[in-house]
Design brief:
2 domains; Spore Coat Polysaccharide Biosynthesis Protein SpsA, Chain A
Length: 316
């Protein structure tokens, strides 16, 4: 099989019919133009609670170009995407990952395939602008990219998980053993030849976003702590700064005491205790994030379990 389009799904019953129609049309155009010989749409149901899997199973029964994996439990977007990439690494010449909400432009897949045929192993889909995002989401997202860059993380600006990967890149990605997945950084770290495709991000076709503020913050923390140790270094630098400040305060206190000018200073003491206490708790929290990741990694639990498959053995 030449191409697999991987679509992670969680409660996407409202958008799946249109997603299937548009992605099937893209595969048909690629086959007719001779750019690919065969292709499939692989839906990965991440433990949905609605009719998502029922719809996927229906499409796979009626169309040879649709297949599906149903995960036994909600494992998260990155794990569901990994499940699809892992299957594609052994069955396809290349894989495109795209979200089900159709905010990423499926028509860019043809351009991605052209760049892949020209020798690119990874083709990133880059958003030109974020007009459909709210001011808050746009500001926080751009702030995240800048923060990652400042902390030494190597990720592509305004790129999410819309990308094409060749089989060589897929198999290299499968060599990563970690359970804490941040695919935007992992794919960039592969080092193979890359290319970029730019597109305008659209409104969500139907349904609701599966990334509320809490999940966005958690995802950002995963990205920072997975690909940068600079926060730990900043803690050490902050500790050194406090030591220097404390030495200066001690020298000042001794000098004032020798001059007999000491006065009760409960306000300054209160402020300093609260400030230093907050700094210590923040430092412990940051270190706790890293320790928590170590805890998850050393257990080596399986990333996911597949409960059911549909249409996986059908020829494309």
């Amino acid at each position: 099989m030449d191409l697999v389009i991987i679509v992670p799904c969680y409660n996407e019953e409202e958008v799946l019919p249109e997603t299937t129609r548009q992605l099937s049309a893209v595969l048909d155009e690629l086959r007719v133009s001779g750019k690919i010989g065969s292709g499939k749409i692989l839906y990965v149901d991440d433990g949905s609670r609605d009719r998502t899997w029922e719809i996927i199973r229906g499409f796979s029964a009626s169309s040879p170009c649709v297949c599906g994996l149903k995960l036994a439990h909600n494992s998260g977007h990155q794990q569901a995407l990994w499940a699809g990439l892992e299957w594609a690494a052994g069955h396809a010449g290349a894989a495109v990952s795209i979200d089900a909400d159709l905010q990423d432009d499926p028509h860019c897949i043809a351009e991605m395939v052209d760049l892949w045929r020209d020798g690119a192993d990874v083709v990133f889909g880059i958003r030109k602008e974020r007009r459909t995002d709210t001011w808050f989401k746009k500001t926080t997202a751009q702030g995240f990219y800048r923060l990652m860059e400042a902390l030494g993380g190597d990720i592509v600006y305004n790129h999410a998980d819309f990308r094409l990967m060749s089989r060589r890149a897929l198999q290299a990605l499968m060599a990563y053993p970690e359970r804490n997945l941040f695919l935007r950084g992992m794919v960039t770290a592969l080092g193979f030849r890359t290319a970029k495709v730019f597109y305008d991000r659209r409104e969500r076709f139907a349904g609701q976003s599966k990334y509320p503020l809490g999940k966005m913050v958690s995802f950002a923390l995963d990205g920072i702590t997975s690909f940068s140790v600079r926060p730990l270094r900043y803690i050490a630098m902050l500790g050194l700064l406090f030591i220097l400040i404390s030495v200066a305060v001690i020298v000042y206190g001794v000098a004032v005491y020798c001059q007999g000018n000491t006065i009760p200073g409960w306000t300054s003491l209160l402020v300093s205790v609260w400030f230093i206490g907050g700094a210590i708790l923040l430092a412990l929290g940051i270190m706790g994030e890293y320790v928590g990741k170590i805890y998850k990694e050393v257990k080596r639990r399986p990333r996911y379990f597949v409960e059911e498959e549909s249409g996986m053995d059908d020829p494309a």
